[in-house]
Design goal:
With 174 residues, the chain is of the alpha+beta class. Helices cover 24% and strands 27% of the residues. It contains five helices and ten strands; from the N terminus they run αβαβββαβαβββαββ. Strands 5-2-3-6-9 form a five-stranded mixed sheet, with helices on both faces. A three-stranded antiparallel sheet has the order 1-8-7, sandwiched between helices. Strands 4-10 form a two-stranded antiparallel sheet. The longest helix has 9 residues. The N and C termini lie far apart (48 Å).
Length: 174
């Protein structure tokens, strides 16, 4: 895998390079009108959405934490709370997430955050040799091994993601 390219430098790429972690940059032209930054990345880059992960900030018992789940699903707040030894979690205030991480929404990377937070990675990541996460700005993803992400962020691994129903499944469920 390639190392950091100077023109794409972010705190995330700098942290990966400093740690000697192999990674590949995947820049793409971000559409500000995109409904989902993660799904946009998967579609534009031609990578299965199960391998592209989104970084979500949650609040657990008054502190911020990081949840990393596939863009093809949602975060299970009860599961991330349990993984962090708490009873409940809520999505973090967007401004608090930006202040804590130093990144803007849609570009929050689990790596190179201004103030690191406890991190939980969905266990589905372990089924892939490499996964993609935000590179620290909209329009930039980083491909790296899940083991390297776990090591760098000291992440716990747990089943914290839920799958979305298939788009073709339009039936109403009771």
């Amino acid at each position: 895998m390639a190392k950091k390219m100077a023109s794409q430098g972010t705190p995330a790429t700098a942290a990966l390079a400093a740690a000697g972690v192999p990674f590949v940059l995947h820049p793409y032209s971000h559409d500000p009108a995109a409904a989902s930054y993660g799904m946009e990345a998967a579609e534009v880059l031609g990578i299965e959405p199960e391998r592209v992960f989104k970084t979500l900030m949650v609040e657990v018992e008054g502190r911020l934490a990081v949840a990393v789940v596939p863009v093809s699903g949602n975060l299970d707040l009860k599961s991330v709370a349990a993984a962090l030894g708490a009873k409940k979690a809520a999505m973090a205030d967007p401004k608090a997430a930006e202040r804590r991480t130093g990144y803007v929404l849609g570009g929050i990377s689990p790596v190179g955050q201004r103030q690191p937070s406890p991190t939980v990675l969905d266990e589905s990541a372990l089924g892939f040799d490499t996964i993609l996460v935000s590179g620290g700005r909209r329009g930039l993803d980083i491909e790296l091994a899940p083991a390297d992400l776990i090591r760098l962020t000291q992440a716990a691994v747990a089943a914290i993601g839920t799958s979305l129903p298939a788009k073709s499944d339009t039936r109403r469920r009771p």
